[in-house]
Design brief:
membrane; two-stranded antiparallel sheet; 2 strands; transmembrane; mainly alpha; 23 helices; transmembrane helix
Length: about 500
């Protein structure tokens, strides 16, 4: 009776306000959820549930990290991620451009930032680690350079580098910074790097003779070695960009020969690209045989270079129709398997090679198997694929077949470990905001976004109907509430009937 009296006192305006408010709130939640999903690739409500609610219910598992190496066990049909703990490791991009001569010119033309602050901050940390050591404490030029690497403004970095050169005209790290950021052409970069080379070589020879005297001397020699190698590598890249390919190849081969165990700068990837530019495919094949091994870390350059070299022998005669009718020859099978292997390692590359996605300038750091690595590889190797007749057609016909071999890429891999979960978040930090990030595997809309969208639609429809037909919707609401409350009232009546029956039993006990 009380319930009926309460429902009769509710006016149609109450139902309009109730449904309208519900529609507004659910609409705001939907907008926020959609924005959060587009920015971070996950649902906010789902993330909060997994982070804070699931541990209370005992449903949280420790995150498993993923190693990106290639398994040497050929007896397994699929490879699961080993239980090792590590983040998605970010690597220095061997194809990184010059900031002043290339990145800055792009910004002046397009008015778009080619690099993110996160990417540049990683470079600053690299430079502080490579070019400064503990033995430099008290040296004014190196203390200035320590501050210069940390400056966010390019003009401030250049200003401090010039101050360091005033303190010491032979400060090679200061020359490196000016060459990278102030010079507006590659010719100017090369000219300044040659001056840095003379200073770096003199410091290297001097510290080499004294490296065993003390710990500080050893630290100095390690720093001078890093500076010397970096300058030589960037000079080789200048020669490559200026078309002096033989000189660039010789400089890179000398570096690899002198420092065979140094994989810090991945100079071998630059050398492979130079071999392709000069069409020295036999040299590239012989050189690749050393690095395409289980003991060396894989990369898109290694995997896709192997695929291109095998495709070169069959691509000009390859026909999808003939292959479907007659089957694949052994050479064609080897090429297709190499393409599948490359696509499994980095599934983002084919869309850039096939020009299904626009390219941007590569960042200064890349994530193995991520979109950033794919951009860097395609930016430097697309013309090599175009040069081989039929290579892109072969890639177009076969690359999607890889996904039939790995139907659950986040759980099991075929030749490599499962695709890492962290690439999307890391690539969003490395790549500029104007780039449409490539995500693998393609994510479906989270359940909560769909649920809130349905809730918002239903409440908005109810608000509209209540506004148009207040009397009818009021009657429908009262009927719905009475239908819902009827079972509850029936259960309460039964419980009240059981209480007198149970009370004597409780007294006897």
């Amino acid at each position: 009776l009380f319930q009926d009296m309460f429902l009769n006192t509710l006016t149609p305006k109450f139902y309009v306000a109730l449904t309208g408010t519900s529609s507004l709130i659910s609409g705001l939640i939907l907008i926020f959820e959609w924005w959060y999903f587009k920015k971070y690739g996950t649902s906010f409500i789902e993330q909060i549930s997994l982070t804070h609610i699931s541990p209370l219910l005992g449903g949280a598992d420790d995150d498993e990290s993923i190693e990106y190496g290639e398994s040497g066990n050929n007896n397994q049909n699929s490879i699961q991620a080993p239980p090792q703990s590590a983040e998605c490791k970010v690597w220095r991009n061997p194809y990184s451009l010059f900031r002043g001569a290339e990145y800055q010119r792009y910004k002046e033309v397009t008015n778009l930032e080619p690099l993110t602050y996160y990417d540049m901050n990683l470079s600053a940390q690299d430079h502080q680690t490579f070019f400064i050591c503990e033995a430099d404490n008290g040296k004014p030029e190196y203390e200035i350079m320590q501050l210069a690497w940390r400056e966010r403004s390019p003009s401030e970095r250049i200003k401090k580098a010039k101050e360091a050169l005033e303190k010491n005209p032979d400060c090679a790290p200061a020359m490196i910074l000016l060459a990278e950021e102030e010079c507006s052409t590659v010719l100017e970069v090369e000219k300044l790097l040659r001056q840095a080379y003379k200073s770096a070589e003199a410091s290297f020879r001097r510290s080499q003779q004294q490296q065993h005297h003390s710990g500080n001397h050893e630290s100095l020699h390690r720093r001078d070695t890093n500076v010397f190698i970096y300058v030589r590598r960037r000079l080789a890249m200048c020669a490559r960009k200026l078309g002096r390919l033989k000189e660039a190849i010789k400089m890179m081969k000398d570096l690899i020969k002198e420092y065979p165990s140094l994989n810090l700068f991945n100079i071998h990837e630059n050398l492979i690209e130079c071999y392709f530019e000069t069409e020295q495919y036999a040299d590239a094949q012989a050189f690749l045989a050393k690095y395409d091994d289980i003991t060396y870390p894989k990369s898109a350059t290694i995997c896709y270079t192997a695929a291109l070299l095998k495709a070169r022998f069959v691509a000009d005669k390859f026909s999808p129709d003939a292959a479907s009718k007659k089957g694949l020859s052994s050479a064609e099978m080897a090429a297709v398997e190499a393409v599948h292997r490359a696509v499994e390692f980095n599934p983002h590359v084919p869309k850039y090679l096939l020009e299904m996605k626009p390219l941007i300038l590569p960042p200064e750091h890349i994530l193995k198997r991520g979109d950033s690595e794919a951009i860097s590889y395609a930016f430097n190797h697309l013309r090599h694929w175009k040069r081989v007749d039929g290579a892109l057609q072969l890639l177009h016909s076969t690359w999607e077949g890889t996904f039939r071999l790995i139907p659950y890429p986040l759980e099991k891999g075929n030749l490599f470990y499962p695709y890492p979960l962290c690439t999307e978040a890391a690539d969003r930090e490395l790549l500029p905001s104007q780039h449409d990030l490539s995500v693998f595997p393609k994510k479906e809309l989270p359940f909560f976004i769909l649920f809130i969208a349905v809730l918002c639609t239903v409440t908005a429809l109810l608000a509209l109907l209540t506004h148009q037909y207040p009397e009818h919707m009021g009657w429908v609401s009262r009927q719905a509430i009475s239908w819902v409350s009827a079972p509850l009232g029936y259960i309460l009546d039964k419980l009240e009937g059981l209480l007198p029956v149970m009370s004597p039993l409780s007294v006897k006990l």
